[in-house]
Amino acid sequence: MKLEDFLYKKSEWLRGTGPKSNIVVSSRVRLARNLDKLPFFNWAKPKERESALVAIADATSKSKFTKKSLFLKMKDVSEIDRQFLVERHLVSPEHVIDPEYKAVVVDEKEIASIMINEEDHLRIQILQSGFNIVEAWNMADEIDTDLSKHLLYAFSIRWGYLTACPTNTGTGLRASIMLHLPALVMTNQIGKVFQAISKLGLTMRGFYGEGTEAIGNFFQVSNQVTLGHRESDLIEKIESIVDKLIKREESTRNILMVKNKEEMSDRIWRAHGTLKSARIITSAETIKLLSVIRLGVDLNIIGGIDRTRLNELFMLIQPAHLQKIEGKLLSAEQRDRKRADIIREKLQE
Questions:
Q1: What pLDDT score was predicted for residue 228?
Q2: The pLDDT of residue 292
Q3: What pLDDT score does 34 carry?
Q4: Which of 44, 48, 173, 237 is deepest in the core (most CB within 10 A)?
Q5: Average pLDDT over residues 166-174
Q6: How far apart are CA 143 and CA 349, in angstroms?
Q7: Same domain as 280, residue 153
Q8: Whole-angstrom Cα distance, residue 342 to residue 276?
Q9: pLDDT value at residue 207
Q10: Cβ contacts of 142 within 8 Å, gap of 6 or more
Q11: Which of the listed residues 218, 236, 253 is the one where a domain comes to its end?
Q12: Domain count along the chain
């Protein structure tokens, strides 16, 4: 298996299926772990970083869950390929910076990925389509348990799993749900949602997680701290709050369809027309318009397009994907032209 094999594959989390997939794009669980008797990555010396990399690579090769996965050392991956991994949500934006002594393990369905030597020695990540946070947690827990047979984790009876960032100490669990909330944005409710989420101990982030902005009405909702909480409690809490968010988005969509149906239809078909006719288009404009079209599909205003194709487009129009499709470096203007070509082709299928 090679990285190029992922280019035209539909990632499992982009299938557009699963519970509440009209609003929930994906569910993600990430576990942070560190090796005992080795300093955290940012404080470690080169030999210690190398020791962690070798130990974890050996463990993943023995694990029944990851032994057939793709193993990539970040230093051996081109800059475009690193960005390609970020765009597919297989690594964090931070993981591609200073790639020495860093690696990633990815299974063939892109459900499981393990970042080695990011902020922590291990970041075990599971991505599932739709509102499947419990299933994602169960898979992450199984991989974590299996790897612990080959690795000794840094653990304190008092504090739990020790991590580089204090907010991850305890369970090391970060659960997040990616939501598409166009109706709440259109009705200017999203600001109040941000405030309410924060008071409940959760946070809302952008398309690529921490430190990124919301793109195309997509938001990631996740827990802020893990210390003093059981994994099951954290999962249950985020499930409960996200369920309320889903219902609020659904009710707002229904209200818009009753009170502003013609205006909504016009906005959706204009977005569709722009994308089907554009010859040059930026990624920012594309994502905003695709978001509107996705809403149109969910509301049955537009037919003949499914979520899977739209989700695929969200991925293919990203800069690194465009350059891998073309097989060469592209200028910003060339990417804008290639993006428009791909969109027209996909929307006419």
A1: 67
A2: 94
A3: 98
A4: 173
A5: 89
A6: 39
A7: no
A8: 10
A9: 60
A10: 65
A11: 253
A12: 2
Question: What amino acid is encoded at 288 in this protein?
Answer: K
**Would you state the pLDDT for residue 137?**
95
Q: How far is CA 158 from the centre of its chain?
A: 32
Query: Same domain, yes or no, for 134 and 217?
Result: yes
Q: Which residues span the domain enclosing 212? A: 3-253
| Contacts for 15 with CB less than 8 Å, ≥ 6 apart | 129, 308, 311
With a cut of 90, say whether residue 299 has pLDDT above it.
Answer: yes
Q: Which of 224, 239, 241 is nearest to 133 (CA)?
A: 239
Q: How many residues make up the chain in this entry? A: 349
pLDDT digits (tens, 9 = 90+) for 175-223: 999 999 999 999 999 989 988 888 888 888 766 544 445 677 999 999 8
Within a 13 Å sphere around the CA of 28, how many CA atoms are in the beta-carbon half?
30
Residue 149: CA atoms inside 13 Å, Cβ hemisphere, count? 11
- What confidence tens digit (pLDDT) does each residue in 211-241 have? 445 677 999 999 877 766 788 888 999 999 9
Summarize the confidence of residues 307-330 as an average pLDDT.
Answer: 92
- Whole-Å CA distances, 242 to 117, 141, 203, 277, 281: 31, 22, 11, 37, 33
The token pair at 306 is: 């499914």
Instruction: Give pTM, 2 decimals.
Output: 0.91
Q: Is the same domain home to 327 and 195?
A: no
